[in-house]
Amino acid sequence: MKGLALIARTSLLAGIGLGLIGFGVSAAEVLRTAPSLTYNIPGKEPQTLEQYRGKVVALEFIFTTCPHCQAASHLMSKLQDEYGPRGLQVIDVAVNPNADLKVDDFAREQHTTFPVGWVTQQQMVSFMNFGSDRFVVPQLVLIDRKGLIHYQTPAMESDEWDKMMTEEAIRKHIEELLSAKSAGTHKAVHPSVASTK
Question: Distance between the two ends of the chain, CA-based, in angstroms?
Answer without folding.
Answer: 23
